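Notes from hallway chat w/ T.B., transcribed later so I don't forget. T.B. wanted the structure written out for a chain they're using in a teaching module, and asked if we could keep both sequence and structure tokens in one place. Agreed to drop them here.
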Amino acid sequence: MKRIILGSLFFASIAVVSVSEATPDYAVRFNNISCTSCHYNPTGGGPLKHNGKLFQGRWFETAPLEIQNYLSANFRALAYFPEKAKTTKGGMGVMSGSVALHAPLSEKKDTFLVIENNFAGFSAAPLRDTYLLYNFNKDGVYSWYESLLVGRFRAPFGIVTDEHRTYTRFQTGTRWYDFETGMMFSGTPSSKLHYDIALVNGKNFSGQTLNPGQSEQWGQIVNLRYMPSFYLFGVSASNYKTTQAPDSRALSLYSIVSLARVNNLIMPATVKLEYSQAQGFNSILNQGFASDPNYVTAVQNSKSQAILARIDWLLTNKITLTYKFDWLTPDMDFPADVYDRHGVGVRWAISANTNLLARTELARATQPSESVKTGQLAQNATFFILEAIF
């Protein structure tokens, strides 16, 4: 009972990184807009603090290793079965095998060092959350100036999620393994308002080496979320100045509604909605998403738009049912070329740190070159993800 009370009081915007899904649902449900209540990163996601680990294991018995303050680990295994199984990538693999160290550097515990490395998973982003964080105030104290973060971090953009298949995420360059290098200033002036302002070097720049012209490439990201009651509204904007390509920019409008907070017995559900526009990120479609490289080249610098609509229904404390709709137009000047996808699935919390997700998705692609269905966006698919984290 003590753990349940602690978790509820201190839970933040992304309190549980469950099976390939960050869950901002709980921020609205438990009326806590400050992500640093449970995460080191003020935008949510990444390694959990002690209170976040307690909340994660609230329905289970936990061991001391699972809730200590200095070490975290994340393991994800994927089994992916696409419609065109013989000609496109599928099968089983390890998505992530990362270890993070996080420790206070001062007696007052106002300065933290976080270092996370993905050494056993897919090659994307071997260096993950790696930053120095200074907190101006203690946890739970509202202030216009909350923290300053310097290093490598997730962009404070849109609905934070650990699922890279979401169209609004890759369409704006903000997938779970897309990180920025720079500095971010965050504030939570009240229980209803939070903001993030980031100055980053380039676009999704790894920061692991120095490149010619990189000192001339800069980006700005602004994120604002407002939570007056059982619903949250947010807006994010980014702009990147590059030397070898046109500038890239993106805008997101998003909302999260907790019906469970209104009446948990009748409607134990959360609704997420996001609309995004972007320009300069369509080259990501060449990473196995679109079937025709020539089409990707044609729309590479076009203005695109995407929609996310998702409902999560808490069937029990350990089982969640999901319906998810994704919609994407790579070129707003040609609105007939559309990708959309309906998905239904279940998430089962096996233990405090182990989760299993299963989902089937039905996809549609209207662009003529997608008739061959060799890209992920045009194919139906079923996948399973097993995740163990602490």
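Follow-up for T.B.: Helices lie at 2-10, 25-29, 50-56, 64-67, 167-170, 259-262, 293-298. Might be a good example for the class.
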